[in-house]
Amino acid sequence: MSQLQQSASSQATGNLNMSISAEKNGTWQAVCPLEDIWPNTGVCALLGGRQIAIFRMKDDLLYALDNHDPHSGANVLARGIVGDLGGEPVVASPIYKHHYRLCTGACVEDADTRLNTYPVELREGMVWVQVPA
Predict the structure, then answer these.
(1) Under DSSP, is residue 115 helix (H, G, I), strand (E, B) or coil?
(2) What is the pLDDT of residues 49-62, one digit of tens each?
(3) Which domains does the chain have, with CATH numbers?
């Protein structure tokens, strides 16, 4: 099972890992209850001095990536439009509409731009994000 798939056994334990990160270690921090994030929207959390955008998809998959849009210089991605391009989940920046892949942080329109992604889990109804040490 890939990190981006839910399974019945994962749901039973309440421990769902939904995002891939280059960082292998760090501190897990509680963000909010899952029901505080509406499906197909994002929220921003200040974790470890970083603004991190956390997205909940309609099937309750969770993703976390930098909130900073490098093309506009603004911290706005949590307010972006969530959707998919070719079946892959993306968020469109609300300013210049660049699309960022939620799984990898890669910018669809600019191959040289990639956002950091962060491991995110659902534990007993609470969203947790791992931030680098």
Answers:
(1) coil
(2) 999 999 999 999 99
(3) 10-132 (2.102.10.10)
